[in-house]
Amino acid sequence: MKKLPEIWNEFVNAGRVDEVCSLYAKDARLLATFAAVPVDDEAGIRAYFEGFTSREGAGVSFDQEGARRQEVGDQVFLYTGTYTFFHGGTGQNHRFPARYSFLVDEKEDPKILHHHSSLIPTG
Fold first, then answer.
1. Which of 23, 71, 88, 102 is 20 to 30 Å from 2 at the Cα level?
2. Could you report the per-residue pLDDT of 94-111, keeping only the tens digit for each?
3. What is the residue extent of each domain of the chain?
4. Can you list the pairs that 32-36 forms with residues at least 24 positions away whose Cβ atoms lie under 8 Å?
5. pTM (predicted TM-score)
């Protein structure tokens, strides 16, 4: 059975913003890779992913090495690791390695409660 971050990855890569947004709890917080301020509402989460997925060739690739899943409560799990955001059309290839954490309530209707993503510093 696929875990929520895997489903999130598939939806982002397919540009399925409605489905991406449906994975977040109503009161979820998104500390997004390319946003200067926290995103605390459904409209903000939608706008963020509409903006990202509108870029040509936009997607994300999870790094399996180093990925962790830790139970932190009753069916509540913390997923951490790294992934790479990418976009670009013909002749372009923009890549942005980032760290992530997803706090996921995996009870009956699994939802992302908190999602933090930040660029990995270079140098």
1. 88
2. 999 999 999 999 998 999
3. 4-119
4. 32/115, 32/117, 33/85, 33/96, 33/98, 33/117, 33/118, 33/119, 34/85, 34/96
5. 0.93
Cα end-to-end distance, the chain, whole Å? 38
- Nearby residues of 57 by Cβ (< 8 Å), 6 or more positions away: 86, 87, 88, 89, 92
Q: Is the pLDDT of residue 92 over 90?
A: no
Q: What is the pLDDT of residue 1?
A: 79
- CATH code assigned to 4-119: 3.10.450.50
Q: Any idea what DSSP says for residue 120?
A: P
